[in-house]
Amino acid sequence: MSTATGADLAQLTGTYTIDPSHTRIGFVARHAMVTKVRGAFNEFEGSVAFDAADPARTDVRVTIQATSIDTRNAQRDAHLRSNDFLDMETHPEITFVSTAFRQTGEDTFDLTGDLTVKGVTNPVTIPFTYEGAASDPFGNLRLGFEGAVTINRKDYGVTWNAALETGGVLVSEKITLEFEVSAIKNA
Q: E strands within 3-162?
């Protein structure tokens, strides 16, 4: 999981809470076939349980409030919250629950789990890079991770689109999910 020695890695064993004020859960979608729109979810919570002796037992759980979607455009955000996209009235949460953890390199790993969007659950594998561990000014041990995965939104029942006069569609089917995570070790 890192370049840390076995003794250092053992110190990372524990349960962590994802720090929403230092974490970004974002996404990127193609718009009108020519540009990208970036957004983020501003309200979420999550936990990470890591066991250095048996990393495969790692457990990650994240719950995102769909209504917190933010693309810096109120009209677009309202449309994304509607039944055309996330249907947040019926499905207010997006969830991820891990099912497997596999180290792929010195500081890289794949996290596999069940992603539920709009009531539809599919397995995804997210490649992550471990960015390190540090004690913050308040004495908290923090771990940092970054990762991204591309999904097809139609696999989650998010099918709305509009044809363009010049060909193509308004919104891409492929959506890249981005994760920049800071997690604080629980006391």
A: 14-18, 24-31, 35-41, 44-50, 59-65, 69-70, 93-103, 108-117, 120-135, 141-152
Distance in angstroms (rounded) separating the CA atoms of residues 132 and 154: 35
Buried b (16+ CB within 10 A) or exposed e, 59-90: ebebbbebbbbbbeeeebbeebbeeebbbbee
Q: Is 100:56 a contact under the CB 8 Å cutoff?
A: yes
Q: 84 — phi, psi (to 5°)? A: -60, -30
pLDDT band at residue 42, thresholds of 50, 70 and 90?
very high
Query: What is the per-residue pLDDT across 88-128, written as a single tens digit (0 to 9) for each?
Result: 899 999 999 999 999 999 889 999 999 999 999 999 999 99
- What percentage of the chain reaches a pLDDT higher than 70? 90
Structural domain boundaries in the chain: 6-185
Torsion of CA 33, 29, 66, 185, to 10 degrees: 180
| 86 or 71, higher pLDDT | 71
- Give the dihedral sign, CA 147/23/153/157: positive
- Architecture in CATH for domain 6-185: Beta Barrel (2.40)
- For strands 35-41 and 24-31, give the pairing: antiparallel
Give tens-digit pLDDT for 158-180: 876 667 677 775 677 899 999 99
